[in-house]
Structure prediction request, 351 residues.
Amino acid sequence: MDYKDMDPSTWVVNSGRPPATPSNPVNTPIFPASTFHAGGAYEYSREGNPSASSLEEALGGLEGGDAIVFSSGMAAANSLMDLWPMGSKVIAPTTAYTGVAVRLRELHERGQIELTTCDVTETQVITDLLPDYHILWLESPTNPLLDVAELEVLLTRARDCGVTTIVDNTFASPVRQNPLAMGADFVLHSVTKILSGHSDLLMGAVITSDRTAWEQLQVRRVLLGAMPSPFDCYLALRGLRTLFIRYEKSEYNAITLVSQLESHPNVSRVRYPGWGTIAAIEVVGSADQVCESTRLWTYATSLGGVESLLERRRRWPLESHGVPENLIRLSFGIEHPDDLWTDLNQALSNP
Ligand SMILES: *Cc1c(COP(=O)(O)O)cnc(C)c1O
Prediction:
């Protein structure tokens, strides 16, 4: 079975399964093993586990490359950064995901990399810089400002300049965007979010079509000890099966509510690219009070679960100061949009 022969929504349901032989289970079981009888494909679980391999097969086909899963999105990000030679010159978004932004700044301050940050929508600024850089780290849409980069232009130009590219595709997911097909070297995911989709595990993944780089990442995962647990791999693959229907319902809810939010008197700005499952609003009055007065929407960090979540991002001291104080990130779940609207509207009525 090859992912090229079918729609990704079919692939995600049917890939990563044991061989179809009598009495074999239809789903890959959870292999709670640290070690295996010697001499086979699996020896020690920090290096690989069948529960992880099944998930990797499914994820790889979704993005059109070879996948490797990690114990969190940040573990995946750090493993990528660990591949960079000392002194690498890196371009990254001004407001990237907080953990990534803080980590890159740390590497810069320690003299391990030379970091320049750019607004991802400033295509010309970035393409002008590229010839002098080694790494381009992109996120599109960005978390939480929902800025969209001209990925195709940036990735093509980066390739021409020999610049290694990483695209954090957590928000778009392979449902809406395949950065490898646009020329990216690496796709990064926080599998914690919509890929697993149920807010019950932490995981990350990198997908690449460069076999050598994939092998290097495999070594990073072994040495950094960043392997996810077999149980989490099982849960993530189970969640991934329904990615497309969850994404489409969450996106429908986002589109439906964004149009209502745009005319709400207590919402001064709505950020939404016109697609996807995440939006951000800037509110008049106390954003904390809005978060605290919802009854259906859950006030919690993270995103991409079946349940709708909201959060004022600047409550985190390390969040970029480019993010407005009164910005609330909305992660749309799969509930009925009328119920989501009724609750959000009442919470916004007395900010
Ligand atoms: C959550 C997130 C990460 C980090 O992933 P974890 O699984 O929390 O370590 C990276 N990038 C983006 C865009 C995220 O939303």
Q: What stands out?
A: The radius of gyration is 20 Å.
